[in-house]
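Ticket #4471: structure export looks truncated?
Reporter: QA, pipeline team
Priority: medium

Steps to reproduce: submit the single chain below to the structure queue and open the exported record.
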Amino acid sequence: MKHEKILILGACGQIGVELTLALRKLYGESNVFATDIREEHELLRGTGPYSVLDAMDGAAITEFIKKEGVTQVYLLAALLSATGEKNPKKAWDINMQSLLQLLDISVQEKLNKIYWPSSIAIFGATTPKQGTAQKTIVEPGTVYGISKYAGELWCQYYNARWGVDVRSLRYPGLISWKSAPGGGTTDYAVEIYYEALKEQKYTSFLSEDTYLPMMYMDDAIRGTIELMEAPAEQIKSRMSYNFAGMSFSPKELTEAIKQHIPEFSISYEPDYRQQIANGWPQSIDDTAARSDWGWKHEFDIEKMTDEMLKNLAVKLQLA
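Actual output as written to the record:
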C-alpha cells in the first residue's frame, strides 16, 4: 500500500476534495497528487501536492504519470446531470473522452488500478423504481446517464480484453457539508441544510414526495476506498456496483431538520430537475456490493442531519 502513487483528476469537485484528503491520510500526503483545471480548493491547500491538469489532455496526463511514477488514477472529472442537460454534446465529450483516453493510458503505462464513478443516473423511466437491482432495465433519460452507462460497458470491455483493473460505483445523491454540490439533481439535499440554518426556510426544486437514493459523504468516501482496497478476485462486476445508503423525500428530510430547527419551513417549486428525478429509482438494491466486498453503510437520515447541521453551523459561523 505504501508504495502506491495516486493521481486524482477532478480533485476539487464534491467527491474529489474529501476523497483526496482521505487518501492522503491512508497513503501519505506526498503520494497523492491532486489535480483539476481550476484553482486549488481551500480545503486541499497545504495538505499535499496540487497541479493544474486538464482531464481531457491525454498527453499531459501521460507525462504526469511517467514523471511521478503514478500507479493508480481516480478519474472524477465530469459534467453532472442537471449541468449536462444544458450542453449535452459537451457533457458527452467530457464524460466519455476523459474515460476512454485514461483506459488507453492504463494499458500503455500498465497502471495498477483505475477508479471511475458511475451513477444512479444510468437508470431511466422504465427501470423498476423500488429496490432497483444490479442488473435490470437500463434506459437513461439524460446525457449524463447515457455517458455513464456507456462508460460502464467500456470499463468491462477493457478489463476483459486488456486486464485493466478498473473499479466503479453507481453513486446515489451525495450529501456533504465540506464542499459544495456540483450541479446534480439531488443537490436540494445539500442546499436545504444551508438555508435551514441561514433563513429557516427553503424552496425545493423537487416535489415533496420525490424519493431518491442518497448517501452521506463519509459513507461514500469510505466505500470507495474499501472497493479499491479489496482483492481483485472479490470484484466480480467490472461495470459498476449498485451502492446504497438511504432513501428519502424532501418532506421526510424537512421533518428530520425540524427536530433540530422547529421553525424551519419548506415550499415547493419543481423545475426541469423534477423530470430528471422522476426517471430515477426510489431505492437501490446493493446486495452485490455487500456480498462481494463487504459494503455496509453507517449513516441514516437522523445521524446525517445531526452531523450536517452541527458542522455547517460552525462553517457558517452560526455556532
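Status: closed, not a bug. The export was complete when the record was re-opened. Leaving a note from the reviewer for reference: The radius of gyration is 19 Å.
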